[in-house]
Amino acid sequence: MRPWLPDDAAALVAAFDDPAIRQWHVSRADTEDEARELITRWRRGWAAESEFNWAIVGADDTLLGRIALKGVDLFDAAAEVAYWTCAASRGRGLCTRAVLALSAWAFTDAGFHRLQLHHSTRNVASCRVATKAGFRDEGTRRGAALHVDGFHDMHAHARLRSDTALLADLG
């Protein structure tokens, strides 16, 4: 994982061209200019301490996905985890490993108390990532998020720094 760079714009446009990413995520970048604007906004989030975004890249710096902490609340030490992976990177546990790495950083280095995530009840793969990364099911929020095909019910998951399995999972 590394910070997003302006040079990632072309790869970001290609990622957002994936129908699966378009289905589950609201953000879009149809041109390299739009991608650079999005990357600039993500980088501003770091400066404002309101949102932390990383590019997930391979050893050759090829874009594999995105992971982020959104809605950062430093007073309550809480944030929401968001993620996606490029089509060629799916099915290898990459997203789960990234969520575990981000959780380790958030809980041990950044001092967060609670991380939460939400995904459409129709997004089975995202639910597997949340569960494998130790995020407990907290229920369903009905009609809570607008996707390209209408409003979806959203599963809510969360993980606390004090969760007993934390050290074993993040070790």
Key traits:
single chain, alpha+beta, globular
Written description of the protein model:
- By secondary structure, this protein is an alpha+beta fold.
- It has one domain (6-170): Aminopeptidase (3-Layer(aba) Sandwich), CATH 3.40.630.30.
- It has helices at 9-16, 19-24, 32-48, 94-109, 124-132, 166-170, and strands spanning 52-57, 63-73, 78-85, 114-120, 136-147, 150-160.
- The protein has a 6-stranded mixed beta sheet with strand order 1-2-3-4-6-5, sandwiched between helices.
- Strand 1 (52-57) and strand 2 (63-73) form a beta hairpin.
Tell how many strands the DSSP assignment holds: 6
Count helical runs: 6
Q: Classify the fold: give the CATH topology.
A: Aminopeptidase
Order of helices and strands: HHHEEEHEHEEH
Summarize the structure.
InterPro entries: Acyl_CoA_acyltransferase, GNAT_dom, Ribosomal_N-acetyltransferase. The protein has 171 residues and is of the alpha+beta class.
Topology:
Blueprint: H1 9-16, H2 19-24, H3 32-48, E1 52-57, E2 63-73, E3 78-85, H4 94-109, E4 114-120, H5 124-132, E5 136-147, E6 150-160, H6 166-170
Parallel strand pairs: 3-4
Antiparallel strand pairs: 1-2, 2-3, 4-6, 5-6
